[in-house]
Design brief:
Keywords: 2Fe-2S, Iron, Iron-sulfur, Metal-binding. This is Non-heme iron oxygenase ferredoxin subunit. The structure is a single chain. The protein has about 130 residues and is an all-beta fold. It has a single domain, classed as Rieske [2Fe-2S] iron-sulphur domain (Rieske Iron-sulfur Protein), CATH 2.102.10.10. About 0% of the residues lie in helices and about 40% in strands.
């Protein structure tokens, strides 16, 4: 069974709050394959899904340096590398961590899995 991996940012409303996330279906569980990026959208915003074991993570899919799709980069050891200038981002948090030209993190999203579908909530900065 897929667990609901999520990364909470700052100022997240408490459970049961009227400001709770609006969840959007972005993929089926079967579409998100371990070792590969899955490009999708949430309300017109480009996101990428990544699977590690039973966990699925979602981060922004556009490198903040040159607006290149991160999902077209190389995935290894929990990092996605931008195909243009080799900036690396953690798939669990969206944090930029290594070299390249990007100095800004990408958005990180809450993820939940229900009934074989992957849902993504609001973006949060790590």
């Amino acid at each position: 069974m897929i667990s609901t991996a999520a990364r909470w940012g700052f100022n997240v409303p408490p459970m049961g709050s009227a400001e709770m996330n609006e969840w959007v279906r972005v993929a089926s569980v079967d579409e998100v394959v371990e070792g590969e990026a899955f490009a999708s959208e949430r309300k017109g915003e480009a996101i990428a899904l990544y699977r590690e074991g039973d966990d699925i993570y979602a981060i922004g899919d556009v490198c903040p340096h040159e607006t290149v799709r991160l999902s077209e980069g190389w995935l290894e050891n929990g990092l996605i590398e931008c195909p243009l200038h080799q900036s690396c981002f953690e798939i669990r948090t969206g944090k930029v961590i290594e070299g390249g030209a990007a100095y800004e993190d990408v958005a990180c999203y809450e993820v939940k899995v229900e009934g074989g579908s992957v849902y993504v909530g609001e973006g949060r900065r790590p």
